[in-house]
UniProtKB/TrEMBL annotation:
Residues 383-395, 422-433 have a biased composition (Basic and acidic residues). GO terms for molecular function: ATP binding; protein kinase activity. It comes from the Bacteria. PANTHER family: CELL SURFACE PROTEIN, OUTER MEMBRANE PROTEIN ASSEMBLY FACTOR BAMB. Pfam families: Pkinase, PQQ_2. InterPro entries: Kinase-like_dom_sf, PQQ_b-propeller_rpt, PQQ_rpt_dom, Prot_kinase_dom, Protein_kinase_ATP_BS, Quinoprotein_ADH-like_sf, Ser/Thr_kinase_AS, WD40/YVTN_repeat-like_dom_sf. Residues 34-287 form the Protein kinase domain. Residues 482-499 have a biased composition (Low complexity). This is PQQ-binding-like beta-propeller repeat protein. Residues 342-382 have a biased composition (Acidic residues). The keyword ATP-binding applies. The keyword ATP-binding applies.
Length: 829
């Protein structure tokens, strides 16, 4: 699909009414008949605004960048596609209501949907149950049927283009799809889509018809059922390679869905079911005795309302609907005007090109000619030396873990085995680990190497990638530093373009100034650990890095078979950490040499803890494992009712850990027997903290809980206005915790009363670290904050330029943190 003909690459507009950002001086105040009242986001094609019709209806207005209209045939192609999109009508689509292909600039308007995207929903609440996935499949099948009936193929169906609204799921951005059968619209040879959800025929330059949407639907439903993409995550080239050549990962898909979704993901488009067949199958399973009088309209009746969703998801959907409902009456909320902004669960920063779920959800946006990508000369000035990319090698390396840690070799292609290095030899450490932050997103490949790799990979070479890559360095994330006091001190803004060590020439930096930074091959999501002269950082590229704390230079790198989302526990000269390749590893801290590996039944995304010669770690298989620290032999296993991504804490002969079954567990450290379970109203991904015989933990129901360590009885509850995935830290009688509502809270550890609140303005995934008189925390807006523990006032802010999901670690002189660009930063305290 020629992006210039379609509006492809613009961000999903639905559900963003309550999150509209204030207009800037250069923004239009009127587009066609629509009064513009706020910004919703931006993409490669232009900008999306929140508009009001003359009657007060909320509308998403997409304006096209003027320079794209220089193609003399652009407006004609845009007009044809807009006309086709307006023909789409269905209960589960966000309708295109207006367009002016000949305007200055051209624009397209769609119904503004007050809902939350599927990717945000899964990130917040975890995978949907089988019954909800069946219902979702029915609604999306009906939506695709309406789109196909109008002669369109969506070609970019993905979780962020599916909104959950009070009246059912909605498919958006089909207005940027290409008219089926109009080959003139694709003569440029560009391939537009989202690699994790693109069909093999799209990736290899073949004809992508309605069966391509079925493939994408299968991928979306796998994501809804498991929380993971069917072909994994990581750099887009690796994901695309796996889509074309590998079988989908369906082991976590419920048995009742596995066969049907496997058929949707068949490599051969002719063997995939049709949308009509899927709709009939889904309808039969959610409506065992459909009423013949209504036909498939019974699906619409079944999905109207939120009874088909889990209670926690339904509550979020209702809140989004209520927050966005003001738009229908003309009172569209914008920052500083409506409480809906504060009540909503996300922020519009997500609408910039950093989309939440994963880099692989970025759209390929570069125009290509006759299947040829632009030559590498155009990228020379912005080359990112961080990663070497070979699209024939899976992005998350599926190799046998090496016996030795790999040496740092950024200019060498990824290899299938380890090689020896000459590492420095710090003394063994016995310190305890930091707490982890679950979740991560994929990292962009380098520019020069992408083009070089594309030239030798046959069909994949048709994919246009230039704008996708160049656009990542153009972001200007909101610094989010307003804490209501006017006391913020923004001291830095890192562009992320230089990934080598940047040592301060004087050796000493002012507070909040960069000392050095070091790139890895993927987003750095887990908590960092600084101990005995080393900084340990796990990366989604599948490696654990040991960096020199003073210079940032790598001492060793140990590669696993998948992403490393855990913070290591260091004890007895070994570093223990988990990987998404289903293994727990023990590695020598001096050499990076593997001592042992332990196989779990699922991804190990729970950071381990070591106590009494035993390593404790949770797994996505819902089990807590106790493993001998010296041998790697299993001692016992405890089964929870959901995935364990919370990291355990050991105190008073008990192991405390949260689970996605909404419970906090206390387990006997010696036997693995359950002592008690405390039930919350949301997933417990937060890792507990223990002090004075009280265990503190956050829940995705928005609460911070204080629970008696011995009895499991509730001491107190503190309510925030968003999910609490951030792990609490207790210091000096105060509990510090972040929330998805964009705040860092300080709460009295005894009474549960708020002492102060520091407003970040973006989701706080990061768990706070306290040292001295300061608490340090990162945020989704890419900022690292230093906040006074006594007053909650800002001391300084350092901008990294990409989402911070990792939790900082601090030494006497330096704070260390990682971000989604794959960079580890050392910032002077």
């Amino acid at each position: 699909m020629d992006e210039k003909a379609s509006g492809g690459g613009l961000p999903s507009e639905g559900g963003r009414g309550p999150m509209a950002q204030a207009l800037e001086s250069g923004d239009p105040r009127q587009v066609g008949p629509y009064r513009i009242v706020g910004r919703l986001g931006a993409g490669g094609m232009g900008r999306v605004y929140l508009g009001l019709s003359p009657g007060g209806r909320a509308i998403a207005v997409k304006t096209i960048r003027p320079e794209l209209t220089h193609d003399p045939q652009f407006r004609q192609r845009f007009a044809r596609e807009a006309a086709a999109a307006r023909a789409v009508s269905g209960a589960f689509t966000a309708a295109v209501v207006d367009a002016d292909p000949y305007g200055d600039p051209p624009w397209l308007a769609t119904v503004h949907v007050a809902g939350i995207s599927l990717d945000d929903t899964i990130a917040r609440h975890g995978p949907l149950p089988e019954s909800s996935v069946l219902a979702l499949g029915a609604g999306l099948s009906e939506a695709l049927q309406a789109i196909h009936t109008a002669g369109l193929v969506h070609r970019d169906l993905k979780p962020s283009n599916v909104l959950l609204a009070p009246d059912g799921p909605k498919v958006i951005d089909f207005g940027i799809a290409i008219a089926a059968g109009s080959s003139s619209l694709t003569r440029s040879g560009a391939v537009i889509g989202t690699p994790a959800y693109m069909s093999p025929e799209q990736l290899t330059g073949g004809r992508a018809g309605t069966a391509a949407d079925v493939f994408a639907l299968g991928g979306v439903l796998v994501f809804a059922a498991t929380g993971e993409a069917a072909f994994g995550s990581g750099p887009s080239l690796g994901v695309g390679y796996r889509v074309v050549h590998d079988e989908p990962g369906l082991s976590a898909v419920p048995m009742g869905l596995r066969t049907l979704l496997g058929r949707c993901l068949d490599k051969d488009p002719d063997r995939r079911p049709t949308v009509a067949e899927l709709l009939a199958e889904f309808a039969a399973r959610i409506l065992p005795a459909p009423d013949a009088r209504y036909g498939t309209d019974t699906v619409t009746l079944a999905l109207h309302g939120d009874a088909w969703l889990p209670a926690s998801v339904a509550s979020s959907v209702r809140r989004a609907g209520e927050a966005g409902g003001a738009g229908a009456a003309g009172g569209v909320p914008v920052p500083g005007v409506s409480d809906a902004q504060e009540a909503y669960e996300e922020e519009a920063y997500e609408e910039e090109t950093y989309e939440e779920e994963t880099y692989e959800e970025e759209t390929y946006e570069e125009e290509t000619y006759e299947g040829e990508a632009y030559e590498g000369e155009a990228y020379e000035e912005a080359v990112d030396p961080r990663v070497s990319i070979d699209p024939r090698v899976p992005a998350e390396p599926r190799v046998q873990p090496g016996r030795l840690g790999q040496p740092w070799a950024p200019e060498q292609p990824q290899r299938s085995g380890p090689s020896r290095s000459e590492p420095s030899r710090p003394e063994p450490s016995r310190s305890e680990p930091s707490r982890p932050v679950p979740g991560a997103v994929g990292a962009p490949p380098t520019r020069r190497r992408v083009l070089a790799a594309l030239a030798g990979v046959g069909g994949v070479a048709a994919v246009g990638v230039g704008t996708y890559l160049l656009g990542r360095g153009d972001q200007d994330p909101d610094d989010g530093s307003d804490n209501g006091s006017g006391n913020s001190n923004d001291t830095g803004n890192d562009t992320g373009n230089d990934n080598d060590t940047l040592k301060d020439p004087d050796g000493v930096s002012a507070p909040g100034k960069l000392r050095w930074k070091r790139g890895t091959g993927g987003p750095v999501a887990p908590a960092l650990l600084a101990t005995n002269g080393l900084v340990y950082a796990g990366s989604k590229d599948g490696s654990m890095y040991a960096l020199d704390a003073e210079t940032g230079k790598p001492r060793w790198q140990f590669s696993t078979g998948n992403g490393v989302y855990t913070c290591p526990a260091v004890a007895g000269g070994l570093a223990y950490f988990g990987s998404a390749d289903y293994h727990l590893y023990a590695v020598d801290v001096r050499t990076g040499e593997q001592r042992w590996q332990f196989s779990a039944g699922g991804e190990v995304n729970s950071s381990p803890v070591v106590a009494g010669g035993v390593v404790y770690a949770g797994s996505d298989d819902g089990r807590l494992y106790a493993v001998d620290a010296g041998s790697g032999d299993r001692k016992w296993t405890f089964a929870a009712g959901g995935r364990i991504r919370s990291s355990p804490v050991v105190a008073w002969n008990k192991v405390y850990v949260g689970s996605e079954d909404a419970r906090l567990y206390a387990v006997d450290a010696a036997t693995g027997e359950r002592a008690w379970a405390f039930e919350t109203d949301g997933d417990v991904k937060s890792s507990p903290a223990v002090a004075d015989r009280v265990v503190y933990v956050g829940g995705y129901d928005g609460n911070l809980y204080a629970v008696d360590c011995d009895t499991g009885e509730l001491r107190w509850t503190f309510a925030t206005r968003g999910g609490v995935g951030s792990s609490p830290t207790v210091s000096g009688g105060v509990v510090y915790v972040g929330s998805d509502d964009g705040n860092l809270y300080a709460v009295d550890a005894v009474t549960g009363k708020q002492k102060w609140k520091f407003t970040v303005g973006a989701i706080v995934y990061s768990s706070p670290t306290v040292l001295g008189d300061d608490v340090y925390v990162g945020s989704k807006n890419g900022n690292l904050y230093a906040v006074r523990t006594d007053t909650g006032k800002s001391r300084w802010t350092y901008r990294t330029g990409a989402d911070i999901r990792s939790s900082p670690t601090a030494t006497d002189a330096t704070v260390y943190v990682g971000n989604d660009s794959g960079t580890v930063f050392a910032v002077s305290r």
